Target: Peptidase A4 family protein
Amino acid sequence: MRTIRRTTALSAALLAVLASAGPAVATVAPAVAPALANSTAHNLHVHLRNASSSNWSGYAATGGPFTSISASWVEPSGKCGSATSYSSFWVGIDGDGSNSVEQTGSEVDCSGGSPQYYSWYEMYPAYPVNFSNAVRPGDHFTGSVTYLGSGKFTMKLSDTTAGWSRSVTKSYSPAKRYSVEVIAEAPSSSTGVLPLANFGTVNFTDALADGKALSTYSPTVINMVSGSTTKASTSALSGGESFSVTWKHS
Model:
């Protein structure tokens, strides 16, 4: 199993607070969301207030409890140089304002100058689990996460191009179901947020929360930013359900 993982969103405002807090928090890896959120120095909750994040680009709606999120996207083609880099595309419940994310999606990583494609589910803070099915650029995915009650979630990912579908039901009773997201992400490791693979542009369509257009919940648009560098930018919502995320920088 790879050591990379997807995490809760880390807002620019939160990172600025940590940067100014001095040595007491300087040793905390900035991408390990539970450590930040449970910091005894600040008791911070990772919540997006200013539409920028070090690891997410896309849309998040808050104010649940939510019961479902779904969207479709086409697996982008990775443009790889010599550097190792990573990118993932997913739908999920929780993560903005909570320490868990129930999610499923696909990925393109660059290693040895070549793109590698995967699909997976994750019940963060547990590690991701890869599906064994082959993934190719141009594959059309539909992903959904649905709350069944009693702490149970079903994560379903369908590749309608290749004709396969995977569904996994797992339990996590502490989940708050406070938010839903449709996201392009720079995954993380124990050392922090990893370089973002050049995926060009990924187009998300049919984004629905609790069966309604995502725009119904006045979602926050999120751009991925590191310092003064924009790593990925998010377009406006079209028809309340569709948008694109474009890679800008690793």
About this structure: The chain has one domain: 12-247. The chain has a mean pLDDT of 85. The first helix runs from residue 12 to 20. Residues 12-247 form a domain with the Jelly Rolls fold (CATH 2.60.120.700).
